[in-house]
Write a structure and sequence with these properties.
- It comes from Pisum sativum (Garden pea).
- It holds the Pfam family F-box-like.
- One of its GO terms (cellular component) is SCF ubiquitin ligase complex.
- This is F-box domain-containing protein.
- The relative contact order is 0.08.
- This protein is elongated.
- A hairpin with a 4-residue loop joins strand 1 and strand 2.
- The chain is mostly helical.
- The protein folds into two domains: 42 residues, Monooxygenase (Up-down Bundle); 107 residues, no CATH class.
- Strands 1-2 form a two-stranded antiparallel sheet.
- It contains nine helices and two strands; from the N terminus they run αααααααααββ.
Length: 177
């Protein structure tokens, strides 16, 4: 184990930074607990600033004095988005008791997500779960297509989403094929 730590300490700092910044948050935290060397790097503000701006490229906020670290801001934002996703799920469930949904309610749910500036990882993590209501999935897909620029069709891959969404002033129809 000492040999592997000395190997990484001999690498340039930017290489170690790149290694750490490519990890998922759970893995980064585990690596930070493995040695003093990795703890210093993995819990540094530069790593967490990179993770925050990579996950939420549209998020622009100066670090306020009461937050103190980019790591704390990252986790607070993650929790906030999780709570917003739960509120969208509950709202849609309450509005669609009989698997039908008014367009105004759908658009209101969409605006909750839009206002929070979800990233694709957030949509995947919070809205694309098998146990979720299909309407919650639909709001997530709609957001990904319109706000994140995720293509519906790719020339070299099968379609990402196999449905057509028809939205009029008073009706939302989804045709799944």
């Amino acid at each position: 184990m000492a040999d592997s730590i000395s190997f990484f300490t001999s690498l340039p700092e930017d290489i170690n930074f790149k290694i750490a910044s490519l990890l998922q948050v759970r893995d980064l935290c585990a690596l930070g607990c493995s040695s003093k060397f990795w703890k210093q790097l993995c819990f540094s503000d530069s790593i967490w600033y990179h993770l925050l701006t990579h996950r939420w490229p549209l998020f622009r906020s100066p670090l306020s004095p009461n937050l103190k670290t980019w790591k704390r801001l990252y986790f607070e934002r993650h929790i906030e988005l999780g709570l917003r996703a739960v509120s969208v799920e509950r709202f849609l469930k309450a509005c669609s008791r009989n698997e039908s949904l008014e367009v105004g309610d759908y658009l209101q749910a969409f605006e909750i997500i839009n206002g929070a500036r979800f990233g694709f990882e957030d949509i995947q993590r919070f809205l694309f779960k098998p146990e979720m209501n299909v309407l919650v999935n639909l709001v997530g897909v709609h957001y990904c297509i319109t706000n994140l620029g995720i293509p519906v069709f790719h020339p070299f891959h099968p379609p990402l989403f196999n449905f057509i969404c028809i939205l009029t002033t008073d009706t939302l129809a989804v045709i799944i094929f």
